[in-house]
Amino acid sequence: MKNTYGATMASLMLVIFVSCSSTEYPTTGSVQRIDPRLDRIIAPGTLPEILAEGFEWSEGPLWLPEQGKVIFSDIPNNSIFEWSEEQGLKLYLKPSGYTDTITRGGETGSNGLLLDQDGALVLCQHGDRRMARMNAPLNAPAAEFETLTGKWDGKRFNSPNDAIFKSNGELFFTDPAYGMEFRYGDSLREMDFTGVFKLGTEGSVTLLTDQLSAPNGIGFSTDESSLYVANSGGGSGSIWMVYDVAPDGTLSNNRLFCDARAASDTLKGAPDGLVVRDDGIIFASGPGGVWILNPDGEHLGIIKTGQATSNCTLDAKNRYLYMTADMYLMRIRLR
Fold this sequence. Notes:
Neuraminidase; four-stranded antiparallel β-sheet; five-stranded antiparallel β-sheet; globular; 43% strand
């Protein structure tokens, strides 16, 4: 007797497999392997995929696990976009970083994006020069913002750039002048330095360091004992620094983690946003694309995007690294 049930199930499984297979996206760039240990992170032959394009300057990607999508800033256009496998590219929020009615130039939109302990969207708002929370659900975004902090010692921030929450709810963020209309030469600057700050859970703001010329990307080691900070140029150069983090959140033992100054002379880009994976591997945008570093600061390789690359984030299962690179949103498959 013919097993029609088995044949039907085999056909059904084939249909399910085909319908669930991912769309093919155009690939670009390359992966430079400096250390063979990189093969355990990215399979040989894997290339970055282009998911969307046409942005002025894409930044600040954030994975929303419950929605199964990535959102990211387009800073000059004062917008946030979303992308998912199912629905592709959509406008998520506008305005995202500048809410005043006075027209101004420069990079006005949001930059770094993150979720607080309650799952609300927190934004580094360049134009409004503050750290803010969106007072709307993630699945129904609206330009309704609450200021978390906009000043230190009575002075307005330059333009908060990137941020990370500690598990106790403290917010650490960087404040270069890239979002000012005339950047470091802007007459509206109220601080004569660029700093790394901490917003305490009770609302106090602490200056952690003012010794970096352009503090940018920021992230904790997996045990939160170390803080990584990218510096994207100026007097301090293209470097990543690492600091010991005390229980009260203060920093000490500042030291060079990785030096990109030689590479920045020949490759597009500079140290910018970064993300730390659960196993301590650091994906850090830098000259040429995204640098892959281990917790000892050893340089394992570069995901070369072919573009000046601003930032990156991981999905909830660490299957893909999503990258914002100039006019593109990209991703690469991880092992």
